[in-house]
Design a protein that fits this description.
2 helices, 65 residues, Alpha-Beta Plaits, alpha+beta, two-stranded antiparallel sheet, globular, 4 strands
C-alpha cells in the first residue's frame, strides 16, 4: 500500500524561483515562468521532500502519512 502524501505550497511565501520543480526526481511539480509551482502528478511522488528541503523561502511542506 502506498503511503499518503500531501504537498502544500504557500503561494504567499513562494517567489517562483523554480528550484523545487527543477529538483523533483519524479517531476511531481510543474511550473510556468512567473507563477508558483503546481502539484501536477501527486501519484508519482515518492515523499523524498527535496522540494521542501531546498526551498529557500520555506514555502513547501511535504507530509507523508
Amino acid at each position: 500500500m502506498k503511503k499518503g502524501i500531501s504537498i502544500f505550497i504557500n503561494e504567499k511565501l513562494c517567489k517562483q524561483c523554480g528550484i523545487c520543480s527543477a529538483l523533483c526526481p519524479k517531476k511531481v511539480l510543474t511550473q510556468e515562468v512567473g507563477c508558483p509551482p503546481v502539484v501536477a502528478n501527486l501519484e508519482d511522488c515518492i515523499g523524498c521532500a527535496l522540494c521542501q528541503m531546498r526551498c529557500p523561502d520555506f514555502a513547501i511542506e511535504v507530509e507523508v502519512k
